[in-house]
Amino acid sequence: MGLFDNILHSEESLFKNPIALDFDFQPKLVPYREDMQHFMANCIKPLFYRRNGTNLFIFGPSGVGKTVSTKHVLNELEENTEEIIPVYINCWKRDSPYKIAVEICEQIGYTNIFNKKADELFREAASLLNKKSVVFVFDEVDKLESHQPIYTILEDIYRKCIFLITNDAEFYKKLDDRLKSRLALKFLEFKPYNFEQTKGILKQRIDYAFVNGVFSEEAFEIIAKKTFELKDIRIGLFLLKEAGNIAEFKSSRRILKEHAIEAISKLGGFSIRRDVQLKKEDEDLLNMIKENSGKTSREIYNIFKEKYGKSYRTFQRKVKYLEEAGLIKTNLFNNYSILEFVEKSKD
Ligand SMILES: Nc1ncnc2c1ncn2[C@@H]1O[C@H](COP(=O)(O)OP(=O)(O)OP(=O)(O)O)[C@@H](O)[C@H]1O
Ligand SMILES: [Mg+2]
Question: Is 64 in the pocket of ligand 1 (CB under 6 A)?
Answer without folding.
Answer: yes
